[in-house]
């Protein structure tokens, strides 16, 4: 059986930030599960940048089924986690099970990847103090308020943690994450 990786997400997650790691990690030989507050179909979104807008725009994206409810996740069944962005982390940061899972991986220095708004869940879980993290640039204040050091980069590595700004960084983000998985001797 292949090592398993859990993607923690929910409704309004950015489609590209879920699907790119999902398929890239499968391609590398991992068994990838989607964990969400409930085991049901999730509605993802597409964020894009439009000239003249002060922020990104949002449109409906793909729908995808969650494999497992977060309350039913035993983190010991997984070798790593991925926390995509979009708006899902805004409410996932209040989910006690999502926080429990995140803390499990940081307590064990196991591989964690987060992008865009994903570090909001890390901040709420109390694991960013003293850590360097990227995020969507407007979240720099959230990283620093949580005691972390913000770095504006696409594949920022701090020990077991690999972070990025948003979906345009998917390639550098997952390349760095696969290197961290390999360095942690986590193989597919």
UniProtKB/TrEMBL annotation:
Residues 4-179 form the DJ-1/PfpI domain. CDD domains: GATase1_PfpI_1 (cd03169). InterPro entries: C56_PfpI-like, Class_I_gatase-like, DJ-1/PfpI. It holds the Pfam family DJ-1_PfpI. Belongs to the peptidase C56 family. This is Peptidase. It comes from Microbacterium aurum.
């Amino acid at each position: 059986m292949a090592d398993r990786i859990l993607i923690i997400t929910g409704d309004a997650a950015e489609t590209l930030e879920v699907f790119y790691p999902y398929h890239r990690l499968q391609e590398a030989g991992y068994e990838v599960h989607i964990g969400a507050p409930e085991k049901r179909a999730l509605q993802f979104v597409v964020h894009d940048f439009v000239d003249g807008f002060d922020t990104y725009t949002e449109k409906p994206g793909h729908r995808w089924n969650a494999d497992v409810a977060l309350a039913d996740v035993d983190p010991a069944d997984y070798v790593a986690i991925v926390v995509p962005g979009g708006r899902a982390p805004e409410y996932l940061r209040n989910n006690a099970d999502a926080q429990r899972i995140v803390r499990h991986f940081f307590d064990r220095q196991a591989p964690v990847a987060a992008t865009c708004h994903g570090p909001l869940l890390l901040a709420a879980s109390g694991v960013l103090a003293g850590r360097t993290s990227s995020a969507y640039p407007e979240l720099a204040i959230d990283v620093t308020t949580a005691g972390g050091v913000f770095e504006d980069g696409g594949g920022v590595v701090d020990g077991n943690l690999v972070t990025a700004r948003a979906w345009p960084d998917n390639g550098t983000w997952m390349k760095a994450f696969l290197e961290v998985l390999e360095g942690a001797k986590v193989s597919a």
